[in-house]
Specification:
By secondary structure, the chain is α/β, with parallel strands linked by helices. The protein folds into 2 domains: 14-30 and 285-402, Aspartate Aminotransferase, domain 1 (Alpha-Beta Complex); 41-284, Type I PLP-dependent aspartate aminotransferase-like (Major domain) (Aspartate Aminotransferase, domain 2, 3-Layer(aba) Sandwich), CATH 3.40.640. 36% of the residues lie in helices and 17% in strands. The protein has helices at 38-47, 60-79, 94-102, 137-151, 171-180, 200-203, 228-233, 268-284, 286-306, 335-346, 358-364, 381-396, and strands at 14-16, 22-24, 26-27, 86-91, 109-112, 128-131, 155-159, 184-188, 207-211, 222-227, 244-247, 252-254, 310-312, 325-330, 348-349, 351-353, 370-374. The strands form 5 sheets. A 7-stranded mixed sheet has the order 4-10-9-8-7-5-6, with helices on both faces. A hairpin with a 5-residue loop joins β1 (14-16) and β2 (22-24). α1 packs across α8 (268-284), α9 (286-306) runs parallel beside α12 (381-396) and α10 packs across α12 (381-396). The longest helix has 21 residues, at 286-306. The two termini are 34 Å apart. The structure holds 4'-deoxy-4'-aminopyridoxal-5'-phosphate. One of its GO terms (molecular function) is transaminase activity. It catalyses: (sulfur carrier)-H + L-cysteine = (sulfur carrier)-SH + L-alanine. Keywords: Aminotransferase, Pyridoxal phosphate, Transferase.
């Protein structure tokens, strides 16, 4: 059987369940936030004694801290295949990176309706064109082609993989399309990067945004990587210390490079952890990671397709490549209560809702909410089987899971 590929900080965690017992936690909410790799947690422990002011301190710990941050920048650049003239700007997360980037784009942006809100809302009103996805990716590409031709956009911004369906988009095709119109391509790598290697130079991606907390590092650090010219010409993301060459009472000259957008003391621990997680996955190997998750994803989908009373939400009918994400809706009953019962009675974490992708969800789903199970490097076959068994048992109970079973009552 497939054991977890990597040891995560939550391995063996037990959680309380209704009735007073405890069960080994099954984490199938990895797409929301992945627990840190154990090796990343240990690395952070080693770094903490050197915790000191970054960039401007003169003491040894300060120099170490600065070296760690700049080393992390180099690791990120190497990991994503950045070109020599690309910048790596550290941000809080993908949302922060895309908001920063939105003010740097010198023109209109075309997006698909399949996007997470983080890649829908930051683009300037009036300068954002939303193309509604078609049933196939091929015809969606034609619709994007037509829109890019019509509006002469500066940017096409797409997700690398859907956080609802798990579908992995053909990025190189999207890059060719954008470039054929003289536009650039940005990829929201929040879901894709933690599970697949994304080489931006090889794929033709001009900008990539991602979050550390989905890539097996702690919360609070993310990155925007991409071509320097637009970023150097953009208004500074934050105004403050570190982003300036000099300041007078009435004037300021801003730096170029990553400093321009990183005013204030950065999240050193988050940045160091993020880079360490990426390096760990290089060590584990891209193929081992993809193979592990592929086998579990097949098992998850096969089990859900076979489950009566459940419909798996699919997007494009010509995209077969997907990450370990499956979103279902129920023929009847409350999906929110089903998700809560999985947690409260079976110690299984999933997510219910519309997953911050309301336009996509509303187009593909027939009900108002879905339940998403998502897996990763720490997932085992046993995790998938426990979920499928618990789901079948709750659905067999019929709408009973929607009733208050706990003596004291529980409310999701
Ligand atoms: N894009 C996608 C595809 C996502 O799944 C998410 C997180 N759910 C985000 C962007 C936003 O990431 P963060 O919350 O880390 O900014």
């Amino acid at each position: 059987s497939l054991e977890p590929l990597a040891l995560l900080a939550d391995a063996g965690l037990e959680v309380p369940v209704l009735g007073g017992g405890r069960m080994r936690h099954v984490n199938l909410d990895v797409a929301a936030s992945a627990p840190a790799l154990q090796s990343v947690a240990e690395h952070v422990q080693r770094v903490l004694p050197y915790y000191a002011s970054v960039h401007r301190g003169t003491g040894y710990p300060s120099q170490q801290t600065t070296a760690l941050v700049e080393g992390a920048r180099a690791t990120v650049a190497r990991h994503v295949g950045a070109r020599d003239d690309d910048l790596v700007v550290f941000t809080r997360n993908t949302t922060d990176a895309l908001n920063l980037f939105a003010s740097a784009v010198p023109g209109d942006t075309v997006v698909l309706d399949i996007e997470h809100h983080a890649n829908l809302l930051p683009w300037r009103d009036g300068g954002r064109r939303v193309v509604v996805g078609r049933s196939s990716f091929a015809t969606t590409l034609d619709a994007l082609d037509a829109e890019l031709g019509r509006c002469r956009a500066a940017l096409l911004s797409v997700t690398g993989a859907s956080n609802v369906t798990g579908e992995v988009l053909p990025i190189a095709d999207l890059a060719d399309l954008a470039h054929s119109h003289g536009a650039r391509l940005a990829v929201d790598g929040a879901q894709l990067l933690p599970h697949r290697r994304v080489d931006i130079a090889a794929l033709g991606v001009d900008y990539l945004a991602f979050s550390g907390h989905k890539a097996y590092a702690p919360y609070g650090a993310g990155a925007l990587v991409g071509r320097a010219d637009w970023l150097d010409a953009a208004p500074p993301h934050l105004a403050g210390g570190g982003a300036v060459e000099s300041v007078g009472i009435d004037d300021v000259s801003w730096k170029t490079g990553p400093d321009r957008h990183e005013a204030g003391t950065p999240n050193v621990i988050g940045i160091v952890a993020l880079a360490r997680a990426l390096a760990e996955f290089e060590r584990l190997g891209d193929e081992a990671r993809a193979a592990h998750e592929h086998a579990l994803t097949q098992r998850l989908h096969a089990g859900l397709v076979a489950q009566a009373g459940v419909r798996v939400i699919r997007g494009f009918d010509d995209v077969d490549d997907r990450l370990g994400i499956a979103t279902i809706e129920l023929d009847r009953g409350s999906i929110g209560l089903l998700a809560a019962a999985l947690g409260a009675e079976h110690g299984i974490s999933v997510r219910a809702g519309r997953f911050c992708a309301h336009p996509l969800f509303d187009r593909l789903a027939t009900r108002s909410n879905g339940l998403r199970a998502s897996l990763g490097a720490g997932t085992s076959v046993d995790d998938i089987d426990r979920f499928l068994t618990a789901l079948a048992a709750l659905i067999a109970d019929g709408p009973a899971y929607a009733y208050d079973r706990a003596p004291g009552g529980w409310c999701p």
